[in-house]
Design goal:
- By secondary structure, the protein is α/β, with parallel strands linked by helices.
- Helix content is 39%, strand content 12%.
- A hairpin with a 5-residue loop joins strand 7 and strand 8.
């Protein structure tokens, strides 16, 4: 039941740069699961462990989509899934056996929870000295805030980015409509895990890697460096213009540079009096650019003239247009995947494209406990009688009919 060998096929890197790497995913919702999703796309074998009730992200959806939600599929596509009651000693032993044959474990509980489950760093290192433990959490295990709940909306607030964006936009504070903090810490965690795997391959020794969301968000926020200056630069950057019937146009660069380039290339007249204060000049020049854009024959003409002036620009489009428009089609951006309900649903393909390896969505999202028998038999060598007993005693769980 506990094979000594690692039961791993020889790596074939043309199939994926992480072919031959096995990840045990104990994480839930977004941050941790997205790490193992990225690694899965890159060719790693991922075994996702869910509690008996399943990962809560299965239920973050409209009523008709619960159980196998779009959110769940986005973060878990391509993984094999087992559902184990870790509160039972027999369930803990199953996961401990998986630790022995995996290269890395990913978790995103609050500090201390994984230890109480019997799967903290000391336990994992004793079971498998080569294994990496990646812990993603809110504020760090050594922080006074270590036990506070840390979801993306909370992190957006406490890191200052909501306040900073409010000042920048000149609008009331508003929440970001995406899991920015989760995906940011996920990508930092992925990089750190890959680096730790390289060390383990060279030395035979794993290590514990912790990446707090608070640190990751501020390390990645480009305006943090400006805020730390003795006198922060009060910049008016990247102006957006209302071009009337032609839509809204975004530009990149300082507002004053956009104005100078348009004056030089397209001879815009300055509408502001010579003695006007700076704020009045900014406002009148902005209005002049919008009037000039509105007078153009169409949106493409605006973009062409901005390009002639050396100004980077693009129309502001709805996200669905971005996902399904001509540029997305040219990029083959969307991949149809099995929705596990007799149809398909689109997902955005992985962005990195390798010249010699495959980075792609692999398979489909698993139902809760779908691979219980397969994983325990193929990876751990459990026989049918042992698996039958675990199922009969409620250690292993499978999804209900509604989830299917």
């Amino acid at each position: 039941m506990r094979p000594d060998d690692r039961s791993r096929p020889a790596a074939g890197f043309e199939q994926g740069p992480l072919q031959g790497v096995r990840i045990l995913d104990l994480a839930r919702v977004v941050a941790g699961p997205y790490v193992s999703r990225v690694l899965c796309d890159l060719g790693a074998e991922v075994v996702k462990v869910e509690p008996p009730e399943g990962d809560v992200v299965r239920q973050i959806a409209p009523g008709h989509d619960r159980g196998m939600s779009a959110f769940f599929q986005w973060t878990n596509i391509g993984k094999r899934a087992i559902s184990v009651d870790l509160q039972r000693p027999e369930g803990l032993r199953v996961v401990q056996d998986l630790v022995r044959c995996c290269d890395a474990v990913v978790e995103n509980f609050r500090p201390g929870v994984i230890d109480r489950l019997g799967l903290g760093w000391d336990a994992i290192h004793a079971l498998n000295p080569r294994a990496i433990l990646l812990s993603l959490n809110g504020f760090g295990s050594d922080s006074a805030w270590s036990q506070r709940r840390a979801y993306a909306p909370i992190m957006h607030a406490i890191t200052g980015i909501l306040a900073d964006q409010s000042v920048y936009a000149g609008q009331p504070v508003a929440q970001i409509n995406e899991a920015h903090a989760d995906t940011t810490v996920s990508l930092h965690g992925t990089i750190a895990l890959l680096a730790a795997l390289r060390v383990a391959e060279a030395t035979g020794v794993g290590q514990h890697v912790e990446v707090p969301m608070f640190d990751a968000v501020l390390a990645s926020y480009s305006e943090a460096n400006n805020a730390l200056l003795p006198e922060p630069d009060d910049r008016t950057m990247n102006p957006i213009y209302d071009a009337g019937l032609h839509g809204v146009i975004a530009t990149a660069g300082a507002a004053r540079l956009v104005w100078r380039l348009l004056v030089r290339t397209h001879a815009l007249a300055d509408p502001s009096p010579a003695d006007a204060d700076l704020e009045t000049k900014k406002s009148l020049r902005h209005q002049a650019i919008e009037a000039w854009m509105t007078a153009q024959p169409g949106r493409e003409a605006i973009l062409e003239k901005l390009a002639e002036a050396g100004i980077a620009a693009a129309p502001v489009v709805p996200i669905l247009d971005a996902l399904t428009g001509e540029l997305a089609k040219e990029r083959d951006l969307l991949v149809e995947v099995d929705d596990r309900r007799g149809g398909t649903r689109p997902l955005v393909r992985p962005p990195a494209r390798f010249s010699e390896s495959r980075n792609e969505i692999r398979g489909r999202a698993a139902r809760r406990g779908e691979h219980n028998r397969e994983v325990l038999r193929d990876l751990l060598g459990y026989d049918d009688d042992a698996i039958d007993t675990l199922e009969a005693t409620g250690v292993l769980h499978t999804g209900s009919h509604e989830e299917r």
